[in-house]
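User
Take a look at the entry that follows and flag anything odd:
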Amino acid sequence: MGVFQPGSTSSLEEGACREGIFPLLKRFSLAIWLSFCILLNACGIKAALDFKPNIVLMLADDLGIGDLGCYGNNTIRTPNIDRLAKEGVKLTQHIAAASLCTPSRAAFLTGRYPIRSGMASSNSYRALQWNAGSGGLPNNETTFARLLQQQGYTTGLIGKWHQGVNCDYGNDYCHHPLNHGFDYFYGMPFTLLNNCQDNKPPELDAAFQAKLWFYTQLIGLAVFSVLTGKITGLISVPWKVILCFSLFGFLFFASWYSSYGFVKHWNCIMMRNFSITEQPMKLERTTSIMLQEALSFIQQNKQGPFLLFVSFLHVHTPLFTTKRFLGKSKHGLYGDNVEEMDWVVGQILDAIDKQGLKNSTFTYFASDHGGHLEAQDGTIQLGGWNGIYKGGKGMGGWEGGVRVPGILRWPGMLPANSVVDEPTSLMDIYPTVAYLAGGALPQDRIIDGRDLLPLLQHSVRHSDHEFMFHYCGSYLHAVRWHQKDSGALWKAHYVTPIFSSETSGACYGRGICPCFGEGVTHHDPPLLFDLSQDPSEAMPLSPDTAPLFHAVLKRIDEAVEEHQKTLTPVPQQLSIHNVMWKPWLQPCCGTFPFCWCDKEDGILNTH
């Protein structure tokens, strides 16, 4: 399918204007004829506006901006992502709305700061912890998938979801992708964890798991002692009491089993639509099946229009990588995993090209946030590289946690091999694809994203974003001010995490840096940087080094006050109650609690 160019006429229209003009001028005035040509040209413009491109969105997990060749890496090989940048537009100031997966992805899907939808946490649990939690993306949020579905798009999600599953009972699927505008889902309702692979240290709340194991042993011993005493006649306790006590012990055991022994079985699962296909998932074939699912979706929907969201499990720990790529990179297992992901991107791009869809497909690649600096195995780094930017995953407002790669390609409509240095956001994809699909944005809520097309096509010089707000959970850590008239890009940090050492820029021993409490520092006055001069945030400004110091902070404070007036109370989806494991919400294939099934049977594409 070709791409219509706004303002162009078809060959038939050009023929009418070129070959028929002389006889027509004999019978009509010049003004009438010009009006006729203008009318035909207007029809051509309308055809261009009515054309709906296919949309392919690819989102990596935990990928650092410094991990890609097109962003300066000269050791990890990413030829396919680099090709995407060469054929499209590269964003150098692409910003995630959060530095952690669940809130960042909620913002990506809705075009709204996660605090607006209740997907920002005020406690230590800043991401969903279990498939059997009750929190997740609320039903009253309208995802871009739902908008495009309403415009006649076939919508599919392949890969990671991590936006919840159930609300009140085990199969209400209130947070499921199919209840958020996707026609098809194959992938992981949760997120990849070390727990999903044997012989890896537990990644999910390890301290809590150890405590549960200790108390489980004590309760198990107590139950055994009571039963032994009753049977031998040493104690006279009614059987009803013993039954209740045993039931309590079983439930406590189940709690430990879910948080320690059963994480692999209960969180590491794969689903096709509402059905569990693997419990636990077989990591050795996950990449192959996900790729085949993506290619199949493109093939089956090549007549378009379609939306395909490929949400990679790469490059999150445990970095499971197929044999083809193991030991091939210069950066160990992490580099191997990045290079495998790049190969998958290449396979998807090749499929688009082979189907003749390249010019009619809007393609996007990004990461949900920065690389995970604390991910290590001894001295071996298992997390990404964030280039010159300080901090990383989970670190509130530091650039390394929120500045991510962003690449867009649409041949004929977007300039090739071009760069945009203006601030943009992952939330911008929402209004951009809504416009491309001909849909209207919801008018009953604030949309924080901005349409990217004018910036991508270089028809405007500056981004529509003046202020960006960087939350850590529900706590405002930093604010970015793009002062367009001067070109300055100010960044004020109100709160920063305490690093183990300033040179590492990481919170070792904590897993993920905290948002509040003893693990953070409050700054009064805030730390102020000019990112246009100091993108590494290495030299805080002062009234002595920046004459505008107080004026800039005053304007940023005013923007914060204005922003906070737009926030309304909503249910907190990441409250302790919502993130805790609930046995009645556990997706289970087989007999609870020993959930197990494998419905793939070695077949890579079964739908």
